[in-house]
Design a protein that fits this description.
- With about 240 residues, this protein is mainly α.
- It is built from ten helices and four strands.
- The strands form two sheets. A two-stranded antiparallel ribbon has the order 1-2. Strands 3-4 form a two-stranded antiparallel ribbon.
- It starts with 10 loop residues before the first helix and ends with a helix.
């Protein structure tokens, strides 16, 4: 009999993680239940900006999250291409995170590790970058909850939650498609270029071209994450 650390979780769990949120959205108060995942998607987006800037040798000054679901990351990156990549990093942050979590969810040990890493990074971001009261409270609560789940949750609940995070992160790109195909937006009362609008400024091609390109890349990560996690789980069961 396999130990808890060797348990695999495949297609059935993935379908449940995709169907449950769809049902909840139809209920009168379902969006309140799913609100932490909306916050998490915004956090992935803004952290995508900040971490991309750091990887390119730039700076990550602060991260702001707002009750209405919006967010802002204050970064520094010199040059047109680095600036465009930092903007793209925000849009690709959720689907990249989703791809990672979908693949981590197939085994109990990697699902638990993913929860430890995410919870720890969220609390670290509060200490270093998050600068709004709502952001500090929401990210701290979610991060602490993830760490408690990693420590005390059953392997089944851990695996399901990691799949749920992965699916919701990936499909957040679909939910934000209006933002992807907008040149300008208003966040916290401030009018500004969208991420694709900023990319267009830096790289000349129109914002809708970059919106379409990044949307297809997000879709590829979702499909790839679902496929790889399902195939991996099936292969391990056969072995």
């Amino acid at each position: 009999m396999a130990s808890s650390g060797g348990k695999r979780f495949g297609l059935t769990w993935l379908i449940a993680a995709a169907v449950l949120p769809t049902l909840l959205w139809q209920l009168p108060y379902g969006h309140y239940v799913l609100f932490p995942f909306s916050v998490l998607a915004t956090w992935f987006h803004e952290m995508g900006h900040g971490l991309t800037a750091l990887l390119l040798g730039g700076s990550f000054h602060k991260l702001e999250l707002f009750w209405g679901g919006g967010g802002l990351a204050s970064t520094g990156a010199s040059g047109r291409i680095p600036g465009a990549l930092v903007s793209a990093g925000g849009l690709m942050g959720p689907p990249i995170a989703g791809f990672f979590f979908l693949n981590a969810s197939t085994r109990a040990a990697t699902a638990r590790l993913a929860l430890w890493l995410l919870g720890g990074l969220m609390l670290f971001s509060v200490a270093v970058w998050v600068r709004t009261l709502f952001g500090c409270v929401a990210v701290s609560l979610i991060g602490t909850g993830l760490l408690l789940l990693a420590r005390r949750g059953s392997v089944e609940v851990q695996a399901f939650c990691v799949k749920l995070i992965g699916v919701q992160a990936c499909i957040s790109a679909y939910r934000s498609r209006g933002y992807m195909f907008s040149d300008e937006v208003t966040i916290a009362g401030r009018a500004m270029h969208s991420d694709t609008g900023h990319i267009a400024q830096q790289l000349l091609l129109p914002y809708w071209f970059w919106g379409g390109t990044l949307f297809l890349a997000s879709l590829a990560l979702l499909v790839g994450g679902v496929y790889l996690s399902t195939v991996r789980a099936a292969d391990e069961r056969r072995l």
